[in-house]
Design brief:
The chain is built from twelve helices and no strands. By secondary structure, it is mainly α. The protein folds into two domains: 93 residues, Helix-hairpin-Helix base-excision DNA repair enzymes (C-terminal) (Endonuclease Iii, domain 2, Orthogonal Bundle), CATH 1.10.1670.10; 100 residues, Endonuclease III, domain 1 (Orthogonal Bundle). Helix 5 crosses helix 6, helix 9 crosses helix 10 and helix 9 packs across helix 11.
């Protein structure tokens, strides 16, 4: 019979495994500033990081600050970012948020959730990534990988990403959130994919996964 673990026991051991596999995880999206990170994360919606990293060097060569971005037309931005999908909406959001940064924040990316989430095209997950990766504020951005794995590992009920974020923040100490969310994403991509996954062969799922998955 599979051994039962408390959530605290699971969390501690899972964190140890992830530290072993990914001791120094680095963000996948290439960026050189809080602003370019913000734009890159916005572009990553329903698009792979690999594709975003192919597009952003071209975009940022032309405009890597809000001032340079609003000097372009929405159509010019759209033409560059088209491979990322949802180009008309994303281009308008990038142009509009750049204008707001200039008008309301002296051209700087604000360091608060409230101000970030007030920007066009910026939801809570995007704001969390920027807070964590640009400003070092403890945050736990929940993407599809994290949401899926938190359910598989019995750390959250899988109801929605908001609940998953609450559950994970309650289980893991704040000082590891910024590293841990990247580690879980990398583990999900490499070892625990959405499809074709054999939990019996998974280092975490085989021991700490939900009993219903095995």
């Amino acid at each position: 019979m599979k051994k039962r673990f408390s959530k605290a026991e699971k969390a501690e051991r899972i964190a140890e495994i992830l530290d072993e596999l990914y001791p120094d995880p680095e963000a996948s999206l290439k960026h050189g500033s809080a602003y370019t990170l913000l734009v890159a994360v916005l572009l990553s919606a329903q698009c792979t990081d690999v594709r975003v990293n192919q597009v952003t060097p071209v975009l940022f060569a032309r405009a890597d600050t809000p001032e340079k971005m609003v000097a372009l037309s929405v159509e010019e931005i759209e033409g560059v970012i088209r491979p990322c999908g949802l180009a008309p909406r994303k281009a308008q959001a990038i142009f509009d948020l750049s204008r707001i940064l200039l008008d309301k924040h002296d051209g700087e990316v604000p360091q608060s959730y409230e101000d970030l989430e007030a920007l066009p095209g910026v939801g809570h997950k995007t704001a969390s990534v920027v807070m964590a990766q640009a400003f070092g504020v403890p945050a736990f951005p929940v993407d599809t990988h994290i949401h899926r794995l938190a359910y598989r590992w019995g750390l959250s009920n899988g109801k929605n990403v908001v609940q998953t974020e609450r559950d994970l923040k309650r289980i893991f100490p704040a000082e590891i959130w910024n590293k841990l969310h990247l580690q879980i994403i990398f583990f999900g991509r490499e070892y625990c994919p959405a499809r074709g996954h054999d939990p019996h062969q998974c280092r975490i799922c085989s021991v700490y996964g939900r009993r219903s998955l095995l």
